[in-house]
Amino acid sequence: MTHLDASGISMSKMLERAEYVFVLPNQPIAPEEGAVQRQGYVAALIEANGNHWRKIMTIMAKLTAVELTHWRQWRDEMLNTKVAVVFSSDAIASLSARVFFVGNGFREQVPVPAEANVLGERHRAFMAGRRIWCPYLDYRQFPNVLIDELRLSMHNQNMESACFMS
Description:
The structure is a single chain. The chain is of the alpha/beta class and about 170 residues long. Helices cover about 35% and strands about 15% of the residues. It has six helices and seven strands; from the N terminus they run E-H-E-H-H-H-H-E-E-E-E-E-H. The chain has a seven-stranded mixed beta sheet with strand order 1-3-2-4-7-6-5. Strand 5 and strand 6 (about 125-130) form a beta hairpin. The protein is globular. The N and C termini lie far apart (about 30 Å). The model has no long low-confidence stretch (mean pLDDT about 85).
């Protein structure tokens, strides 16, 4: 598996329609088809991979939801619509989507430009155009305060605070 695909379409079609692409360093266990049909893709993915992937999907949802107050509902549908997940930086070279390089592993392949904006203090993300280099999607490395700052920079407007959205 080179990408997460809740919709059953090809990777190239998925990447074409995506507004957000997350390049992650580790692939999860693929959920079983029966579980996907019963629960939906994200719930089945979380069941197959545990709480760690629930946290990853939650942070992705908080970053990409149009309205932060609806992140829970968005988490369950985002892979069907406007969010794609891949596990190689090779797939994203010509994309117009906002791309998140998650963790430090991709920085050698896709270096952070010197002119990138630095977001956060203790935990940092770097933003250059539609590219974002961010910490691993775990609350110890990617706290709600960084989610808030990144959402503000991405959407260039005042938004609700993720600090109050459990």
